[in-house]
Structure formats: C-alpha cells, structure tokens
Amino acid sequence: MDRLIFLGTGDAMGVPRVYCDCEVCTEARTTGVNRRFRSSVAVEGDNGSFFIDCGPDFVTMMESRGQRFIERILVTHAHFDHIGGLPEWADACRWMNKKGQLYAPQEVLDVILKQYPWLDRNLNLHAVDHGVILAGWDITGWKVFHGKNGYSYAYRLEKNGYVWVYCSDAIALPPEQKLPLYELDLLVLGTSFYHEEAEFSTRSVYDVTEALELISEVGPKQSIFTHMSHDIDLRRKYNLPDRVEFAETGLERWVGGKISLM
C-alpha cells in the first residue's frame, strides 16, 4: 500500500490568519494543533511519489519533512493557494539540474504559464485531460463547480482495486459532477467552515454540514475533510460520523488496499 500524507490542510489564507486573534488562530501560533498550510497532499509508495498541488507554503512543507526535491506534482487548478509554490519548485529544479514534471489539465497549464511564463525552462508540462498514471495510480480528472471562484478539478485515483478521490475546492456539485464520487474507498473533500452563513453567491467550498449530506448520498467507505479555515477548531468534538475525520497537518493514511467495514 501507499501512504497518503496531508502536507497542508488549510484554505486559501491558511491558519493562523495574520490579522486574526480568534481562539483558533491564537492556538495555531502556540501549540499548533490548528496550524494549517495551504492544502496539499503527498502520495508515496514503492512505485514512486507525487504531490497534489503546490501552494505558497511549499518550501515550509518541504523543510518540515526534510525533503529536498519532488519530481512530480499534479495541480487541481490555477488559484494562488494551489500554485504559489511553483516558482520555488522550478528554481530548485534549476539549481539541482533536474527537470520537474508538472501535471494538470491543458486549460490549467495555460493559465499557469500566463502567470509564470518561465516555468517550462525547468519543468516539463503534461496535460492530463485524458488521464495519467503516476506512481502506479490511474488518475482521471473532471471539472467541478467552485462557486464564486469558477471551477477546479477533482481527481479520481485507482490502484489495485482501491479507489479514492481528491476534491479540495468544490461546492454544490450538480448530479453529473457527483458521478465519480460513488463507490469510493476514500473521499478527501474540502470543507472551509462547519456551517457557513455567508450568502451562497459569495461562497466557493462546501461546509461540513453540506459535506456530510454529500457523503450520505455518495457513500464513501471513509472520508477526510481538508481545506479548512480558522472556523474549524480541531480541539472541539464535532461528533462526526464513523469513518469521517478532519485532516491534521502531517496526518498519514494508507491507500491502495481494500477496506473492510467489519
């Protein structure tokens, strides 16, 4: 089996917010249970490794785990909290005389190159519109509704009969976008707030109450919530259902082996 490692579990601003003295941000500055880098995960196994997303906390995450290089990164969409670390990755590739391999749908690659037109000097760019295999995982992506922020991509990964989805930035998915969420061993889903009261037209990510409804509908065997704002306090008891949990920074789970519900 492979390891799924949560390098970052925060929303676009991370936790703590620099301007905020709420209880969650204050705790994040001290004991740090709620300290959250921008959302990213690593998948590591005998067949290789890769990251999903490369936000502005990329260097801090790499330093925290003593890692000097990553060869492959798969990107969900071209928002800063998911690509802000790409220039530093490319610079590392330049200094180490290695080529990084960047994977994303073509329209995402196009936006990335408009923002960072020099990246392809040190990174090879691969369009994944028709799928890709990384570290033995058969990966397919599809566009998901990202509310006021437009769209993102979610990825469905399959290996040895194990199927999981990474969907960090989505809300109010229509039926056709939910179809790949059925019959999953694991769903990793973004939930910025527990119950967000803002006007729907201003929102971009599921809250926990909505996510639980989605889980009840699509029925994954396990679920992990990520992309959390400073509204979520991991010291609290939220009474989540069995096999549903919040990700903490550094959380590791085995993926690639069949799950028993016994």
From TrEMBL:
Q: Outline what the protein does.
A: Counteracts the endogenous Pycsar antiviral defense system. Phosphodiesterase that enables metal-dependent hydrolysis of host cyclic nucleotide Pycsar defense signals such as cCMP and cUMP.
Q: Where does the Metallo-beta-lactamase domain start and stop, copy by copy?
A: 37-222
Q: Which organism is it from?
A: Fontibacillus panacisegetis
This chain's protein is named: Phosphoribosyl 1,2-cyclic phosphate phosphodiesterase
Lineage, top ranks: Bacteria, Bacillati, Bacillota, Bacilli, Bacillales
InterPro entries recorded: Metallo-B-lactamas, RibonucZ/Hydroxyglut_hydro
One Pfam family, please name it: Lactamase_B_2
Catalytic activity reads: 3',5'-cyclic CMP + H2O = CMP + H(+); 3',5'-cyclic UMP + H2O = UMP + H(+)
